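anyone else get weird line breaks when pasting these?? whatever heres mine. first is seq + tokens for prot A
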Amino acid sequence: MKQLLSDRPQQLAAGILLILLLLMLLMGMPGREVNIIKAYLWPATVALTAMMAFAVWKKPAPAAVLGVGMALWFLFCNVVNGDLYLQFNLRFVCTAWLTYGLCLPLMLVLDGEHREKWLMLFALCFALFMLAISVLSCYAALTGKSILLPATEGAIGITSNRLYALTKHPNELGCSMNIAMLCWLFLGMRAKKPLCRVLCLLALVPLAFSIGLTASRTSIATAALVLGVAAAIALTAALRKSKIWLRWAAGAAALVLVASVALWALNAGVPLAVKNRATLVEGGLLIPTAYAEKKAPAKDNDDNELIRRDFTKGIGTFSLRTGIWEAGIRYIRENPSVLLVGSTDGQVSRIPGWILGRDVYHMHNSWLEMLLQTGVLGLAAYAFIIGRMLLAAARQVFCLSLPSWQRMLAAAPVVLLVCTLMEIYPCISGNVWDMMYMVLAGAVIAMDPKRRQAAAA
């Protein structure tokens, strides 16, 4: 405790973790969340960002500097686009500051000795939280009863053929559960005791089942890829005494086989397991607040029954996403100033409605969303951070001499980039999974072997 109080980076880590935990507890309580952000979290975030800026100045790194710069740029874009006092976009700006100004550079300013401990603590807290939601989701699906959590405005259950939990959309849930799966895989490979490894592997079962319940094709495909990559890394580590070509061949075969089986199981097996056990809505909000007025909960089992999603249906338009992307590009053509100073989250969320008349509230692509909200400058900073992470990840994933847990950690944020092509998660949605993703990305950059060699020299 004495060391914690005297070590500024560790103070930052403790403060960020406390805010992350509080935001997890506030999930499903949008009204209370906004009030607490206004009263407590916004001042705390600004204070922690000032501390982080000083820590980055003392221990500079390009990605960390850009992270803090992006936090300030989000604020600037909101101010110049009319929300001078953050009356309408405070929650989003606050979570953007937490994501880029705090969570991303955190792992870069921590010393190697403390970095791994805090990383494991962050991963464990997030993984346990999502595991609890997934277990409740499985119970709701298998028993046909929606679960109303005390002191929240949301419920957990299946409606409109998909899993909803705590007012979060199935696509959001699927992405966050994929992050949790990667956290459990990292923790399991890092664990020294066999019992801990077994428990971490068992935690994957309800998470994978819940991803199948979301019926999100992007999340299902990502989960299959997660399991395939984990199998490949584990097998190449187990064959450490074999020839290099055999290890790579076995790893590639494991990736394809496990990913294929997992894809079928999550897309076809899960709906079959809960057939005729659909959840009836008994109260509480299952559908996200933004959709609640447009879409009322179903009143019978037929509309609630989980169905298998056809991966080939709508593939030409990526499930009508191309129309949303065209609307975003059209908005840029009509408002070219967006390329310079971006826009606000509230304005961007209305673009599909303005142009297409559709009940869609984001661009379904993190790159386009980032361009619309932060302009060319923000997109360039984001691209540099992702590129730096990819370079660091490649040096670690393909280095067979590194421990399997480090290779799994390096693969985690890379695999999750699949979601960013079809969704805004987990990079610019303003939720806790964005923050956890950037913690992982920062850790991968910090553990880059080339960066360590340069620091040692």
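and prot B, same format (seq, then tokens)
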Amino acid sequence: MKPTHEHFLKLIYDHEQSTGQHLIVNLDENSETGMEDGKTLSKLGLNVNTFDEDVRYLEKKGFIHNDPYSTSIYCISLTEKGETYVENGFKHQSDIPQPTSNFNISGVNFNNSVVGSIGNNNNISNNDISISTNASLSELESLIATKPAEDQELLQELLATLKSIEHSAKPVKRGFLAKFSGVIEKYTDILTSVGKFFVGIFAND
């Protein structure tokens, strides 16, 4: 996007924020609109030679809406997309790095890309996540069956521990997964499945 487009969007944004009204632009430099806050291009510092093209471009891209009163009087407002674009510092939402929410369970780090969606302010809510712990444990049990014999004893103990947590109303003690951290980190699919289990537990608290 051209700097002139961004300048124009910022003008509209500032006007709407300060007045609560759409920006009325009069293309006729020799007259005023007769409407409150109507402004000519020169007063706005906009280029008369490119203004119409800029309006068409920004409207086509979904940043603004133009509801002209006449061929020379434009009534311009930002769309939600345009407002968000300005508030994000002229960056598209997809270009903004999303924070990774991490939590640690006995030396095993889980993040939101592994365990599921994290709600606003990093709170996990029932509205954001719906995961069955039964389904997670069934998945985990199937995954464990595919692992090498040398890890079976520890993985089966991990499974039994998680089943105990599922059926117990007691709070989980800090460090209870420490002995399993090595085998969990060894297998990405096991790590993911364990993460899903704990999301299900937290979501249903």
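btw re prot B: Residues 110-131 have pLDDT under 50 and may be disordered. The two ends are 47 Å apart (CA to CA).
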